[in-house]
Amino acid sequence: MAGQTEMPREAIITPANIQDSPTQDAVPTQVDWPTEEDRALRPQKMAEMIGQRDVFRRLEISIRASQKRKETLGHILLDGPPGLGKTTFATCIPRELGVSMQIGNGATLKSPKDVVPYLTNAEEGSVLFIDEIHRMQKSVEEFLYPAMEDFRIDLTLGEGINARTLNIQLKPFTLIGATTRSGLISAPLRDRFQIREHLDFYSIEELSVIIRRSSGKLNIKIEDDAAYEIAFRSRGTPRLANNRLRWVRDYADAKANGEITLSVAMEALEMQGIDKLGLDPQDRRFLDTILRVFRGGPVGLESIAHTLNLEPDTLSAEIEPFMLRSELLIRTPKGRCLTEKGFRHLGANPSDYLTMDSPLFKITEPQP
What we know:
The chain folds into three domains: 9-198, Rossmann fold, CATH 3.40.50.300; 204-271, Helicase, Ruva Protein, domain 3; 281-352, Winged helix-like DNA-binding domain superfamily/Winged helix DNA-binding domain (Arc Repressor Mutant, subunit A, Orthogonal Bundle), CATH 1.10.10. Helix 6 crosses helix 7. With 368 residues, it is an alpha/beta fold. Helices cover 40% and strands 13% of the residues.
């Protein structure tokens, strides 16, 4: 990537798109959306976001303070499982500030020359958003240190005795990094972010509001109990909730005259293989492999990944977080183990599978 990547119009945020809005602590239930944005379910302003209210309040304070002092907002690192709103926050912040934005991806930044166009093209006070920032190469991280701290970069031109160093002063900018694997970010880079926020899973009530709002934008009627059922099976993730709403909408249009009732929602989700806890076929295959092949554990993640023919990163980033949160799975020094709840969800009796290595195994002494 020698030059700046051509971005779609909606990815470039300019002051012309800004509409100042007051702080809202209450969860909004109805929003007037421009027709052009009706197909995009992602919120366009921070005040329109459902959930993550603590993160919202802290970021809003930082934004308002930087505007009051007429200073550049400090660098921000957002981390958390996929689909919880990291990109949404990153794209809403420039709108709040009234500045432009550039978007990059850590996987494509393989050498310092790849990030130079983003830095030199950054306007004063603008935002540079790097998604999956943990995937940047070490050389790129080190190249960013002076850019983040002193807003300057040093370029080496030529080779050998003819080489010379060119110092380029940058305009003050805000770097927003998003990652699903914050542990893979080196400490020197992580410490250069003045603001660090972790995004957690959403409650069922918050997802219900998101689903009802999205259904309005998709022009489909949905009953409250149907929205709650979809939310309950969405694993605490707005992206999954919207994806499952789209599937239920297709099912309702094809088989139920376009109206989503509780029975329609349940039939549609069961047809897709989504069970009552929100586990899809791959999730259940993950748990079932631990049960059948490894007798409930303990077992290492790589052993499970090889058995399922999947990457360990896929399991640890996409499947495991919700399993751990739902108490279906636990991590031990020896590996992953099913909990009693996990056994019961698979219809298995724990006593039929447990080994002496299992944390659920108990030795019962004979009674006198």
